[in-house]
């Protein structure tokens, strides 16, 4: 009887630990990639190499790159649609998984979101419409922000500063070396439609697959002008990288709020006004992002030339954040692994 009680207690402890792990998001953490200092330093170099490959060998790799981009956009947009599909299918079907052999097991909501995403990508391939491309680009942005984390303010500063130099160099100075604006050429160059390439390879005839348009790849958001004569562009990197910073400060705001409520400590140093303490880092950084994006748009209109958006977004987000963190006395804690500096529950780590 005592042995049975011991085994029952062990089973209960396992159930409790697994339930706690599910509540704390440990299963989600397994798929989340945290950027460290080394990756933050080498990411602009890797992006530069990829940009040069696309600049010099675009005709050779455009079909492969288009197919890979379409596959990634399909997966990302299915992830974006999944909560809506779960809400729609909950009253109609149980959340039992359907087996597809070696492909895995999927719920009805997952199958519905994937089907809608495939349909959207196919319509984009057939029409090349800019609105569908923007939808796929937004799916890529949401997926990247959901599965990538910045662990500290130091890594955030290294990453954004390196990408700022990368953006400025390839927009302003690449023409002096390569006789062409590398960033603008790669961003605006359309790719051959895979259906057109397939019809030519299979010799399906002159009218089969030849009327499909060339595709502008969903690595950016495009906005038509009021006259429709030209488009303004914003790269998804200019959304994702500041978005990762916003995600970091949102996590820190939640962490600090929970830590203060548990310790019942004072909200901050005595020389800081209560109104300043009420301003969250998230809202400060979000306002800075809006002002930086507005400044980049105005600068583009004034100079009538492409502008590196990170030249405006990085200072307008990082400088107010660093200033507020210094005034609140949180700069040292935010700078290096703020979520591991204290023994706290892991429920503070995710927002």
Automatic annotation (TrEMBL):
GO terms for biological process: membrane protein proteolysis; signal peptide processing. Pfam families: Peptidase_A22B. One of its GO terms (molecular function) is aspartic endopeptidase activity, intramembrane cleaving. It comes from the Eukaryota. Residues 1-25 are annotated as: Disordered. It is a multi-pass membrane protein. Keywords: Hydrolase, Membrane, Transmembrane, Transmembrane helix. The chain crosses the membrane at residues 40-58, 64-85, 106-125, 131-150, 157-178, 231-250, 281-303, 309-327. Belongs to the peptidase A22B family. This is SPPL3 protein. It comes from Struthidea cinerea. The gene is Sppl3.
């Amino acid at each position: 009887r005592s042995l049975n009680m011991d085994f029952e207690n062990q089973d209960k402890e396992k159930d409790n630990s697994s339930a706690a792990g599910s509540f704390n998001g440990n299963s989600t953490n397994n798929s989340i990639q945290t950027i460290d200092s080394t990756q933050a330093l080498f990411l602009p170099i890797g992006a530069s190499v990829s940009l040069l490959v696309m600049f010099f060998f675009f005709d050779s790799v455009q079909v492969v790159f288009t197919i890979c981009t379409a596959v990634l956009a399909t997966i990302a947009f299915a992830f974006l649609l999944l909560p809506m599909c779960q809400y729609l299918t909950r009253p109609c079907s149980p959340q039992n998984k359907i087996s597809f052999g070696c492909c895995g097991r999927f719920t009805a909501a997952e199958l519905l979101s994937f089907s809608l995403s495939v349909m959207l990508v196919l319509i984009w391939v057939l029409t090349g419409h800019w609105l569908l491309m923007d939808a796929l680009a937004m799916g890529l942005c949401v997926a990247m922000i959901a599965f990538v984390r910045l662990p500290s303010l130091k890594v955030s500063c290294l990453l954004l500063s390196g990408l700022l130099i990368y953006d400025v160099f390839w927009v302003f100075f690449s023409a002096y070396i390569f006789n062409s604006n590398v960033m603008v050429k790669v961003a605006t160059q359309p790719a051959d439609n895979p259906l057109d390439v397939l019809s030519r390879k299979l010799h399906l005839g002159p009218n089969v697959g030849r009327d499909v348009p060339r595709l502008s790849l969903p690595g950016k958001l495009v906005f038509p002008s009021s006259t429709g004569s030209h488009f303004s562009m914003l790269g998804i990197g200019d959304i994702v990288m500041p978005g990762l910073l916003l995600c970091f400060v949102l996590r820190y705001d939640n962490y600090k709020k929970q830590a203060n409520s548990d310790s019942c400590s004072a909200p901050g140093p005595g020389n800081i006004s209560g109104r300043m303490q009420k301003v969250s880092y998230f809202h400060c950084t979000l306002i800075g992002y809006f002002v930086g994006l507005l400044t980049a748009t105005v600068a583009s209109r004034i100079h009538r030339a492409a502008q590196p958006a990170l030249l405006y977004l990085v200072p307008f987000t990082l400088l107010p954040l660093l200033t507020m963190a210094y005034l609140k006395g949180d700069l040292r804690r935010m700078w290096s692994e703020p979520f591991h500096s204290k023994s706290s529950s892991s429920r503070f780590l995710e927002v």
